[in-house]
Every structure is written in C-alpha cells, then in structure tokens.
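Worked example 4.2. Below are the chains of a multi-component assembly; read each line carefully before continuing.
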Amino acid sequence: AQKVTQAQTEISVVEKEDVTLDCVYETRDTTYYLFWYKQPPSGELVFLIRRNSFDEQNEISGRYSWNFQKSTSSFNFTITASQVVDSAVYFCAPTRESARQLTFGSGTQLTVLP
Amino acid sequence: DSGVTQTPKHLITATGQRVTLRCSPRSGDLSVYWYQQSLDQGLQFLIQYYNGEERAKGNILERFSAQQFPDLHSELNLSSLELGDSALYFCASSSSGREYNEQFFGPGTRLTVL
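Applying the procedure described above to all two chains together yields the following structure tokens:
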C-alpha cells in the first residue's frame, strides 16, 4: 500500500528565515511522480513543482529548492528567505502509473510572520 | 490564473436537494479531474475523465455522478444532498491525463448544505 505523510501540521517562521517542508512517500512502485501544491488563504490550489522518482538531482528555482532521496522516501521542499506571501497550506501529492490521480498528504500550514 | 474555470463559486442549498457544478478545462487539456476538500477528510479524488470517457474513479458516492461533454467541459452532479456533503469541490485539468502531467486547478466551488 502507498502512504504519503506530512508530519508537520503547522510551521511558523519569521520573514526572511528559510523553511523546509517534509514529505515522506512510502511505496513499492519504482516509478512515480511527486508534486507540491500550495493553497493560500484565498483557497485556490497552485502547482509548484513536479519530481520524477528516477531523478534524484536536487533543483533550485528562485527561492524554492527541493531535495528528493529515494532511499528514505523523502521529498522535501525548502523556501529560502521566506516572505509573508508564502503563508499557505502546502500539500505533497504523488501519482503513479496505476493511479494517475493525485493522492494528497494532509498538508502543512506555513505561517510567515512579518 | 490557472485557466480552469468553475461555476458557481458558492452554492448554498438544503438537504435532499440536487446541484450541478460546472468546470471548463484549460484550452487544449483533454483530461478533467474532480476533487473534494473537507475538514475531516482532506483533499480526496472523486473521478477523472479523458476526452469524454471516464478514466478513473475514487471515493465518489453513488449519489454523485459526473460527465465530460464533447466540448470537454465537465459537470459534477450531486443529489440527495446531506450535511456532510458540504465541502470545497475542485476541478483540475491536465493535457493528457497521464500520471506525469501537472494538474491545474480551478478556483473551486464551495458547497454549503443546510
């Protein structure tokens, strides 16, 4: 069975601090895809990034970076120099060949204080 | 703006009633997904359509049904509504409905059942 866990329910940081959001995806599948979405207070779901299970190269895009370690099933997302506008709920959501829909984690509420 | 539109934005109705939620996917996207977000169950996949045909089914109740029309817009029909059906209903679209495609979400329809 597959399981996606976002153990951090809430995180609070002060503006300009770096913050890392954790996600663990346990599966026996060898090929899968991991997505991060953001849900700001306005309610819409915004796509942030996608990673493939066969690509462990870490990437940086602006203030966002992500670290994927297949051996530990962890897929972490870091925001550098956080801003108040980053305050939102962040969801980790995998898909796989036999289940193409997103399976959302429980989400992490990030609050960035001024 | 994701390019996915959903109407109406808010819907208030009574128990036992029937409602229809509408979704127009991004231009060029062939696949539509419906998700439900509630406080107790989180974000859950309901159903997926690809080019007019049902592709996958999730935790969708028998009282709920959906379809995708030739112009690719989709409707989610909810009948015999119960208090517990109150939730935010999202539609998402992707280009080919494959597991590696990003899904882009509409703004959601907030359903309140009184």
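Take a moment to check your reading of the output against the notes. The mean pLDDT of chain B is 95. The interface with chain A takes residues 2, 33, 35, 42-45, 48, 55-56, 58, 88, 90, 92, 97-100, 102-108, 110 of chain B (CB under 8 Å).
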